[in-house]
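User: When convenient, might I ask for sequence and structure tokens for a protein?

AI:
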Amino acid sequence: MTPSKKWILLRGLARGVGHWGSFVDKMKAHFPQDQFELIDLPGNGARYKEKSPTRISDYVKDLRSHSEFVKSGEPFHILSVSLGAMITVEWMREFPHEVQKAFLVCTSSSGYSPFYHRFQPANVLKSTCLLWAQDEVQWEKTILEMITNSRERRDAELLSLVTYTKGHPVKMENILRQMIAASKYRFPHEAPGEVRLIGSHGDRLVSPDCTLQIAKGWGLKPAMHPWAGHDIPIDDPQWLLEHLL
């Protein structure tokens, strides 16, 4: 029997644990023997009233204080997306004994990619629409149209995501603070531990080249989805689960 593993799941910019959608239940069913911690970044999800840090290292400090796995001294895996993956890299750099393996989904670094690849220009106008979103439905539809490519999967998850967003409204100030933290952080020249890089050729928010350039710099072979958007857990959860084995 395969030994059980412990997993910490981290979302990215302006997204809370509820924005995993149905993926978490699918992952728990896929790995029934494993244990899971879903932790919100400060400023996101259930912690939307808190102020987001502007340094990636401060997120690491904060999240470690909220992790029962850390408190128990037990090593774990991390599955993280975008900004969450940047935090994971710094976590591994500062505390390499804690993270057994990290799965980094659709992330980027200023040391490997220009700013216009890390946030593709076509999304600038779309993202400004969030400033005038009349309700949570318009907010979620705007975001999902930028980060997903499957209309079927988008429609299937929309209601639950809208309901979650209504109860956990992220502040624009915190989105900007998180963007500042992401823009300043630079990945190390070498992988900070055992890492699996995962990206998608269909990512329209962050250029797929960002994952490819990190992989090249670290001497790793990335797993690249052929068509999914930035949010692979929403677009194709089964494919992602298969790459966590």
